[in-house]
Every structure is written in structure tokens, then in C-alpha cells.
């Protein structure tokens, strides 16, 4: 039996439109998820640092809940359960037409699918980011903290201006790893009907049975995104992290 | 001129934004870590503008003594008066204000590793003292010039020698024009050939009106620059004397033993 590959069935016409749309959707939900995850992680770290006993317990609960349950289950929960608990006026607002609802590349972000996917991915990833940034923070020499305390920095400014930049630099490689995980895990959002790359690739398969070609194209797109995004993120990382790495290699 | 530095003045009874009298007074100060008492009933008054060298063997409590002044360590008992005002009950904003007005120079420099030399100096001016960026930058460059490092403004701490790092750290401690500056063994982590440049900067500060409290092993600094020497051993002050007296006629037996070991390490009694 010979393997006949028909790339025309995937890279032209409607299937191509689906792939492009799915790919752009994956990119946008990844960007939104990364931003949201980072904001959540920083807020929770602040809560753990300055929130006393209650803050500590809240953050511990958040981390263990979202790190120890499957992401697919979390996405199903946000989409099928939590979404319906939101006020009706809010849901109507999301479902209505809005001028700013379409991102470049014709990706709709004011939809329950996009919002639940970005939120679910962000919450899941934040649980990992919290612990990884925390390790980076713990690696900051105690003298740095003392110097800032001796200069009269408030707890928040000490965190924001001294600990966070150095902690992020220490933890930058694992953080990039989590961002790339988020990109790949966005494929699970096809499970709640979110029309990202994996969803569209499967749609091609049921449309013209070009499963092998469609999945091959999808895989290559994920791979390229990962490689390129990884390289860019490492370059964009804190300068301190790069010089520190170079010094260690020298 | 100083008044320009205080754009924000903290409310509260203990206002340390400007000291009338940059004095430091220890009253029956006790510091214990768990069961271990490292300072045991310290009474000491340091006058405004005075340069005091604190000497003593390792583990005698010297560093703890000055770390109590800006509360890097908390008091166990007693009180420390700065500008004749109690500091024991200070917390929150008032404590931060006191700290922002007392310079501290660490043995390990502790320059902010992610910032270059000029940013190390200007950061607190902006973030703590509310200066605008341009004014803080100008002031930082002036201070770098004062410690002889104008050409290293853009260098990261890792690109500077130990002596240069410590000079930047001194400039950083001077940024807020403190009236009191504390040195915790500022030359102990330096290679011998770099000690001189740091001591030179300290010498230029001495007797310029700023109160200097210096924990040190540099006997020459203590002898030539300090107004008084405080000798501590076992958590207690054994002797307070002008350097001329202390180095020629130490009164306390432990001070005599210490000086003999430090000044003449080759010819001492055989260890038992």
C-alpha cells in the first residue's frame, strides 16, 4: 500500500481558510492567556508576600486546586458551569455585537469560548508561574532585600523594584517554558468548541478525510510557533538573566 | 539646601525627616537571638558629627549593635534614641522614614544586581524620596563623581571591582543626604589593595558634619580618623576611649589581648 499525500486538499480553498483562522485564534488566545496568567501570578505573589496568614492560605489553595486537576476538566467547568453562573446581563453583553470584538485576523474575542479558554489557560498556568517565580524570588540574595529595607523602601516597592525584576530574571527560562506550555495546551480548548488550530484541523479531517495532511500541517504550525516564540521570549527576557547566563557559560 | 530633599514629610509625632541633632544614644540595650544574648546592657552616646569606630573580636556583637540603629534587627530590651527621640515603638511609615534618613553601608556591598551604578544611587531617590527622574539622575552622577567613579556610571555591579562596588554603595548611602551613616565592616570583603580607595572616601566624609559609626577591623582608620573607639567583647562594652589612649594604653585586659593579636599577629602566645 502506498501512502498518497494530497496537500492540495489542505492548503487550498476552505481548508486553508480554516487553518489560517485556527492558527491566528491559537496565537491570540495564547497572547491573552500569557498576559492574564502573568498578571494573576504577580497579584497572587503579592498577596502571599503581603497578605499575612489569609493571603498565604488563599494562594496555597489556588495553586493546589489548579495544579492538581486536569486542564480539560477546568476548561469544561469554566465553560459549561461557571459561565452560566455569571449575570445574564453580562452574558448578553458578551454575546451582542461590539465594534472592538474582532482582533486582527478576524478573531472574535468577545465570545464565551474565547474568554473561557483564555481564562482557563491563564488560571491553570498561573498556578505554575506562582511557584516558579517564587523560586526565582527565593534565589535573590538576602543582602538585596536588606539594602532596600535600609533605604526605607516600602514592602510593595521592595517587591516591585528589587525582588520582582531579579526574581523574574532568575526564573525566566522556566517561565518561558510555561508560556510555551500554555500555547500547546490551548489545543485542549477545542474540547469546549473553541475554533483554534486543533479544532480546525479536525474539521478538515471530517470535511475531506485528509487527516494525515491536516494534522501534519497543524503539528508544523505548533512546532514553528513554539520555536520562534521561545527564541523571541528568551531574547525579550530580563537583560540581567541573559548576562548571568552568558557569564555562567563563559 | 536640605529642605529641598523632603518633598514628603511623614505625619506622626516622631518626625525623622530632619534631625535637629544627629545623635545616637543606646539605653540599656539588650539583643537576644533565642536564648543567646549577643548584646547585654549597652549604654553608649554618640554625638552629632562624631566618628566612632567600633572594634572587637568576631562574634562580639559589633555588627548587631549598628544593625539595631536602623532596625535591621529588632531590639529585645532597652531603647535607642536618635535625635533624643525614642525609636523603640517605631513601625510602618515612621520607621521607613527613619531608615531613609540613615545611611547604611554593608560588608558585602549589596548593590542592586539588576541596576547599573547610577541607577543604584538614583532608585531610592525616586522610589522613596519622591524625586523626579532627571533630578535623581543628576544627583547620582554628582555622587559618583564624589567617590571618583564618574566613568563607571553605566557599569553593572558585576563589572566593577570590590572596591568600586563599595564606593558606589557609599554614594548610594549618601544619596538622601543622611545625617547619620553606619558602616558594617566596609572593607572586610575587599582584596587588600582595594581597601585604601574605600577608606579614602570614608576619610573625606569624616568630620564633614555627618555622624559616622564604623564597625571595622582597620586599625589605621580607627587610630587616625575616629574620634573615639568603642571596644566590644562578649556583648558588652569593655572600653570607650580616644584612639590615642586606646592604642597606646588600653585599660581593659581583653582590649590589650585583642590589640596584641591584631597588631602583632606573629608574636602572640601559643594557643593553649
Keywords for this entry:
heterodimer, A: 250 residues, mainly alpha, MetI-like fold, globular, disordered C terminus, B: alpha/beta, six-stranded mixed beta sheet, four-stranded antiparallel beta sheet, disordered N terminus
The number of strands of chain B is 10
Identify the CATH class of chain A: Mainly Alpha
If strands are numbered along the chain, what order do they take across the biggest sheet of chain B? 6-7-8-3-9-10
- Report the total helices of chain A: 11
Uncertain stretches of 5 or more adjacent residues of chain A: 244-250
The name of the CATH superfamily of the largest domain in chain B reads P-loop containing nucleotide triphosphate hydrolases
Strand order of the largest sheet of chain A: 1-2
For the biggest sheet of chain B, the summary is: 6 strands, mixed
Counted by DSSP, the helix tally of chain B is 9
Helix content of chain A: over 70%
Backbone shape of chain A: globular
* Chain pair sharing the greatest interface: A-B, 22 and 26 residues
Distance between the termini of chain B: 59 Å
Amino acid at each position: 500500500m502506498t501512502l498518497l499525500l494530497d496537500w492540495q486538499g489542505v492548503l487550498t480553498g476552505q481548508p486553508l481558510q480554516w487553518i489560517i483562522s485556527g492558527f491566528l485564534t491559537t496565537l491570540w488566545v495564547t497572547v491573552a492567556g500569557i498576559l492574564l496568567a502573568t498578571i494573576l501570578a504577580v497579584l497572587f505573589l503579592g498577596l502571599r508576600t503581603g497578605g499575612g496568614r489569609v493571603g498565604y492560605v488563599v494562594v496555597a489553595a489556588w495553586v493546589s486546586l489548579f495544579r492538581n486537576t486536569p486542564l480539560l476538566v477546568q476548561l469544561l467547568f469554566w465553560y459549561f458551569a461557571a459561565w452560566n453562573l455569571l449575570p445574564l446581563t453580562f452574558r448578553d453583553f458578551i454575546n451582542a455585537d461590539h465594534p472592538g470584538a474582532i482582533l486582527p485576523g478576524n478573531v472574535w474575542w468577545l465570545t464565551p469560548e474565547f474568554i473561557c479558554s483564555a481564562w482557563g489557560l491563564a488560571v491553570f498556568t498561573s498556578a505554575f508561574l506562582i511557584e516558579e517565580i517564587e523560586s526565582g524570588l527565593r534565589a535573590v540574595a538576602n543582602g538585596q532585600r536588606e539594602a532596600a529595607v535600609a533605604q526605607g523602601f516600602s514592602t510593595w516597592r521592595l517587591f516591585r523594584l528589587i525582588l520582582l525584576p531579579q526574581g523574574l530574571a532568575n526564573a525566566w527560562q522556566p517561565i518561558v517554558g510555561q508560556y510555551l506550555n500554555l500555547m500547546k495546551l490551548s489545543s485542549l480548548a477545542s474540547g469546549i468548541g473553541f475554533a483554534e488550530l486543533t479544532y480546525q484541523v479536525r474539521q478538515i479531517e471530517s470535511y475531506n478525510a485528509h487527516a494525515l495532511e491536516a494534522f501534519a500541517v497543524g503539528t508544523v504550525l505548533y512546532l514553528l510557533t513554539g520555536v520562534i516564540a521561545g527564541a523571541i521570549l528568551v531574547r525579550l527576557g530580563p537583560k540581567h538573566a541573559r548576562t548571568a547566563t552568558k557569564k555562567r557559560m563563559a | 539646601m536640605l529642605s529641598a530633599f523632603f518633598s514628603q514629610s511623614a505625619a506622626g509625632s516622631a518626625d525623622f525627616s530632619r534631625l535637629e541633632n544627629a545623635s545616637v544614644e543606646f539605653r540599656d540595650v539588650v539583643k537576644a537571638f533565642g536564648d543567646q544574648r549577643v548584646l547585654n546592657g549597652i549604654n553608649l552616646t554618640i554625638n552629632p558629627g562624631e566618628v566612632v569606630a567600633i572594634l572587637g573580636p568576631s562574634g562580639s556583637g559589633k555588627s548587631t549593635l549598628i544593625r539595631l540603629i536602623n532596625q535591621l534587627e529588632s531590639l529585645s530590651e532597652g531603647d535607642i534614641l536618635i535625635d533624643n527621640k525614642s525609636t523603640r515603638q517605631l513601625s510602618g511609615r515612621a520607621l521607613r522614614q527613619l531608615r531613609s534618613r540613615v545611611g547604611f553601608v554593608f560588608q558585602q556591598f549589596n548593590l542592586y544586581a539588576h541596576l547599573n551604578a547610577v541607577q543604584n544611587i538614583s532608585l531610592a531617590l525616586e522610589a522613596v524620596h519622591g524625586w523626579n527622574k532627571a533630578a535623581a539622575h543628576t544627583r547620582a552622577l554628582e555622587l559618583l563623581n564624589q567617590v571618583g567613579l564618574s566613568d563607571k556610571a553605566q557599569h553593572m555591579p558585576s563589572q566593577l571591582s570590590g572596591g568600586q562596588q563599595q564606593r558606589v554603595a557609599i554614594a548610594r548611602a549618601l544619596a538622601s543626604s543622611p545625617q547619620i551613616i553606619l558602616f558594617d565592616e566596609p572593607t572586610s570583603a575587599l582584596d587588600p589593595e582595594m581597601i585604601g580607595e574605600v577608606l579614602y572616601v570614608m576619610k573625606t566624609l569624616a568630620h564633614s558634619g555627618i555622624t559616622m559609626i564604623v564597625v571595622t577591623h582597620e586599625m589605621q582608620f580607627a587610630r587616625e580618623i575616629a574620634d573615639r573607639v568603642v571596644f566590644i567583647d562578649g556583648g558588652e562594652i569593655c572600653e570607650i576611649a580616644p584612639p590615642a589612649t586606646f592604642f597606646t594604653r588600653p585599660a581593659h585586659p581583653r582590649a590589650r589581648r585583642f590589640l596584641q593579636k591584631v597588631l602583632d599577629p606573629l608574636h602572640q602566645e601559643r594557643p593553649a
